[in-house]
Amino acid sequence: MRIDKLLSNVGYGSRKEVKKILKGGSVAVNGQTIKDAKFHVDPYKDSVLIFGEEVEYREFIYLMMNKPPGVISATEDYHDETVVDLLDPKHSVYEPFPVGRLDKDTEGLLILTNDGQLAHQLLSPKKNVPKTYFAVINSEVTESDIEEFKKGVILDDGYHTKPGELTILKSGLHSDIELTITEGKFHQVKRMFEAVGKKVVYLKRVSMGPIQLDDTLQLGEYRELTEKEIQLLKE
Description:
Layout: H1 3-9, H2 15-23, E1 27-29, E2 32-33, E3 48-50, E4 53-54, E5 62-67, H3 89-92, E6 97-98, E7 107-113, H4 116-123, E8 131-137, H5 143-151, E9 165-170, E10 175-181, H6 188-195, E11 200-208, E12 211-212, E13 222-224, H7 227-234
Helix pairs in contact: 1-2
């Protein structure tokens, strides 16, 4: 890879800005000062220093965010703050995007990556990747609702959902539940409860596939996935 492309990719400025840095003699490859922007390096083998600091190159980045309400699952928007706006520049420079989406008012687990192949795998309907949500419902959830969800429900547009696994955590005037589904239709959890005459008043995603939301992450916080978590996702 050309040295100017490498340095630009990891956030040291545009190609034009990087060329100025190179001309200033601030970049060294394997101990040799490099001023030629066309100089080729192996980002995985060569030692690249800029201003005396080691350059860490990664092709892909994998992040777990506890998405806060009011923020949209997109890379850019003219009106609302996006999940990408919450990222530190050292992460946003890799141009990660949310894998799937959570509604604007929904909280919880959101994975962001620039690995398009992995994102496709996680979102493919053929893969049946389970997603689990915690929700508060505005009325009593019953055993008959569990049976309805097991069969799949008919949404307002006539779509028959795949079976959902509904667990009642607390039942009463307001009920706490967990629901696991393998689809990601628009507003699906909310619409599934509307199909049985109930309303979701709070919604949070707690897991996606093998990845559980890190409960140490406050709303709006994120961290990089561990090597083990990345491997679990890929498997």
